[in-house]
Amino acid sequence: MQLSARNQWPGRVEEITDGVVTSEVEVALDGGQRVVATVTTDSVRRLALAAGSPLVVLVKASSVILSAGRPGRISARNQLEGHVTRVERGAVQAVVTLETVGGQEVTATLTLGSLDALGLAEGSAATALFKASHVILAAD
Which CATH number fits domain 61-130: 3.40.109.10, 3.40.50.300, 3.50.50.60, 2.40.50.100? Predict the structure, then answer.
């Protein structure tokens, strides 16, 4: 199956905190970093997720926010630090790719104004941020 989500990282379920409607799933990515997803409790059951379950974490590039360097205090649970490896400028938006400390490639789209305001360029330290509710989990 091909997916349009550019960010696809393999990992394993570390912990699940069940709720009545939604559950929190903590995932250890293959590179060692952790990602938290909030999904419906029904999805946890339907995907048969349990500690140790292999899965793929998906995040659309448009859901990723970038910070130059480390961000201050922020509500986004997922913060993957790294450095910029590629910047592709378009007419209105740019596509920025980071390599994280854990070796994952993270792609984000942002406006040219934001790119210029942040001063991001190849080699720049940056952090990819995304909310737990923007994470999609895929399991076989």
Answer: 2.40.50.100
- pLDDT tens over the chain, length 140 residues: 788 999 999 999 999 999 999 999 999 999 899 999 999 999 999 999 999 999 999 999 999 999 998 887 888 999 999 999 999 999 999 999 999 998 999 999 999 999 999 999 999 999 999 999 999 999 98
The structure's pTM equals 0.93
3-state secondary structure of 64: coil
SS3 category, 85: strand
| CA distances to 16, 38, 43, 64, 140 from 23, in Å | 7, 6, 9, 21, 19
Largest separation between any pair of C-alpha atoms in the chain? 45
